[in-house]
Amino acid sequence: MPATAMRQANPVDGFATAEATFAGLVRDLHSAETARMSHSDLEALLEREGRELMRQLLQAHLDLRAEAKAAGPVVGADGVARTHARAGARTLETLLGTVQVTREGHGARERETLFPLDAELNLPPELYSFGIRRRAAEEATKGSFDEVVKVLATHSGAAVAKRQVEEVVRRAAQDFDRFYFDRRLTWPAETGSSSDVLVLTFDGKGVPMRHADLRPATQAAATRRQRTLATRLTKGEKRHTRRMAQVAAVYTTAPFARTAEDIIRELGPPDAPRPTRPHPEGKRVWASLTKEPAEVIEEAFLDASSRDPKRTKRWVVLVDGNADQLGRVRSAAKRLGVTVTIVLDLIHVLEYLWKAAYVFHPEGSPEAEAWVTERLLWLLCGDVGQVIASIRRTATRRRLRRAARRPADTCADYLERHRAYVRYDTYLADGFPIATGVIEGACRHLIRDRLAITGARWSLAGAEAILRLRSLRASGDWDAYWRHHEQKERERNHAARYANGAIPQLTPPESPSRRTGKAPRLRVVK
Q1: What per-residue confidence (pLDDT) applies to 7?
Q2: According to the model, what pLDDT value does residue 193 have?
Q3: What does the angle CA 219 – CA 204 – CA 187 come to, to the nearest 5 degrees?
Q4: What is residue 361's three-state secondary structure?
Q5: What is the pTM of this model?
Q6: Domain boundaries of the chain, sorted by first residue
Q7: Which residues of 245-280 are buried (b: 16+ CB within 10 A; e: fewer)?
C-alpha cells in the first residue's frame, strides 16, 4: 500500500497490511522458486521484503499514535496558549523507508504551530530520522562522503545527497564538548575506582586544508609561495597547506616497574618475548583544529582532574620536548595546583640518537645500532650526562666540520635542554610509561587514516566534525554520546518551544484490541 494511502488508513488496517505482507513472505519461502535459491539470494530477498514489512509496521504504529491528544493546554515559550487544533502531516525518511507522520498541531494567530507528538517522538526538524543521521555519521568516520551516500542508498534505500550528508555529519558532532563537560561532572560515580597512575599526553598533527581555512600565518605564507608547475605542487611547495590539530589523550593505568634491560629487550626483534603490561583504563583520545593548543591541554587537565578529585593518583605527562607544549603543560598544572611528573618521550629521544649515530657510523650499519643501544642503556640507567659528553667528545676527537657534526650537536643539545625530563631510571622504578604509544596511535587513527588521505583538502567545519566523531569511536563513547545528542536535540527542537520547557503530555491512543475486540496478530499462512 502506498505511504500516502496508508496515512489515511485506519491503524488496524495498517497492521493488517503488515500482516498480509508477512503472510505473503511466508508463502514465498514455501514456494518452489525459493526452494532452489542460494542462501545469498534468500538473504537479499528477506532483507528487501523484511525492510518493507518493518516500514509498514512503523507506519501503522505512527498512524495509531496520530490520534493522541494533548491532555492539557498547549502553551508556547512565548506564553501564548495555542487554542486552535488541526491535523497536519510530514514526511520522515528512515532506515526502513519513507513514512508519513500525521499529528495534531496547536496554533494561535501569528504564532508558531506546535506539535506535541513531534516532541514525544523526538522528530528531527529535517527530513532524515536519527537512524539515518547516526548511520551517516558512523560511515563518515570510516570513509569518504561519496561512500556514505552509496552505503545509505544500498542498505537503507535512503537517497541522501552528498551536501546533505556533510551537513548531517556536522550537526551530529555539535554536542561533543557538552557531552564531555557533563561526563567530567559524574566521572568518579560512573567509572568507580581506577589505577593510580594518571597519564596525559599530547601531540600535533597537520591536516591538509582549503586555503581559506588555514591559520592566518600559514595562509599568508601559502599566498607568497611561487608555484613552478600549474597542475601539481613540486618538492618543497607542499608546505603551508596544513593546519595543525592538537591531539590529546588521558587515561589511567596500573604501575608497571621495569629495568633498563627490559626496555632494551622490548625494542628488540618483533618476535622477542615481551612481558604482559597493564592496559590503559578509561582512555579518552581527541583532537581539535578549531581550538588553540592551550585550550586542548587545559581541557585534558580538567578531564584528568575529574578522574582524581581527591588528588590521590600520580600524574604523568608525556611530551615530545616542544617548548610551547611544555610551557602550556606547566601553566595548566599550576592553575589546577597539581604536581605532575613530566616525561620526555623515549621514542623522540631515539630519533635524535639515531641521527647522531649516522654522524659517526654508516647508515644502517651494525656499528650504528650498537652505538645507539649503548647510549640508550646509559640513558635508561639515569646517566644522561655521560651520553651528552660522549656525543660531544666523539665529534670533537674526529675533528668533524660544523655541518657534518650538526646532528650530533643537535642531539646533545636536545638532551641537555630536557635533562630534567629524562630521569628514566626513576620513571621505570616507579612504573611510569616512558613512551607515547597511545598518542601516536591516536594521531594515526584520528587524522592520518581519514583526514590525511591523498588529495584531500578539508573545510574547517567538516574536518572538526570528523575529528570529533572519530574521537568518540576511538574512546568507546559513541553509544553514550548518541543518547546524549538525541536528548539535546529534543531540548533544542521541542522543549525550547514550550512554556518552561515542559512538553504537554498526550493521552494514549486507543489500542486496536479495544476497537476490534481482539488484537491483530501475525498468522502463518501456508
Answers
A1: 43
A2: 67
A3: 125
A4: coil
A5: 0.86
A6: 3-168+477-496, 176-224+236-474
A7: bbbbbbbbbeebebebeebeeeeeeeeeeeeeeeeb
Cβ pair 478, 493 in contact under 8 A: no
> Strand (E) positions, 214-321?
242-253, 281-288, 314-319
Sign of CA dihedral 466, 471, 472, 473: positive
Which string of b and e fits 157-193 if b means at least 16 CB within 10 Å?
bbebeeebbbbbbbbbbebbeebbeebeeebeeeeee
Backbone region of residue 122 per phi and psi (left: phi > 0; alpha: psi in -120 to 50; beta: other values): left
**453-490 tens-digit pLDDT:** 766 788 899 999 999 999 999 999 999 999 999 999 99
C-beta separation of 464 from 209 below 8 A: no
The Cα 458–Cα 233 span in angstroms is: 17
Query: CA–CA separation, 488 vs 505, rounded Å?
Result: 19
End-to-end CA distance of the chain: 22
Instruction: Enumerate the β-bridge partners of residue 70.
Output: 506
11-24 pLDDT per residue, tens? 567 799 999 999 99
Q: Report whether 354 contacts 410 (CB < 8 A).
A: no
For residue 483, the one-letter residue type is R
Helix or strand holding residue 343 (H, E)? strand 340-344
Strand, helix or coil for residue 230? coil
Judged against a pLDDT cut of 60, whether residue 520 lies above it is answered with no
Q: If you count them, how many residues does the chain have?
A: 526
Q: What does the pLDDT average to over 295-315?
A: 95
| Cα Rg of the chain, angstroms | 31
- Exposure on the CB side of residue 43, measured as CA atoms within 13 A: 4
Three-state SS string over 75-116 comes to: EECCCCECCEEEEEEEEEEECCEEEEEEEEEEECCCCCCECH
For range 186-193, the mean pLDDT: 66
- How crowded is residue 386: how many other Cβ atoms within 10 Å of its Cβ? 13
Q: How many CB atoms sit inside 10 A of residue 437's CB?
A: 13
- Cα 522 from Cα 23, distance rounded (Å): 8
The pLDDT, as a whole number, for residue 368 is 96
The predicted model gives 349-362 an average pLDDT of 96
511/490 Cα distance (integer angstroms):
26
pLDDT at 98 over 70: yes
pLDDT(424) > 90: yes
DSSP conformational letter for 1? -
What backbone phi and psi angles, to 5 degrees, belong to 116?
Answer: -60, -35
| Secondary structure (DSSP) of 121-139 | HT--SSSB-HHHHHHHHHH
In the numeric block, the cell 533544542 is attached to: 492
According to DSSP, the residues that pair with 239 across neighbouring strands are none
d(CA 404, CA 389): 18
Grid cell of 346 as nine digits: 623515549
CB atoms under 10 Å from CB of 450, counted, come to: 20
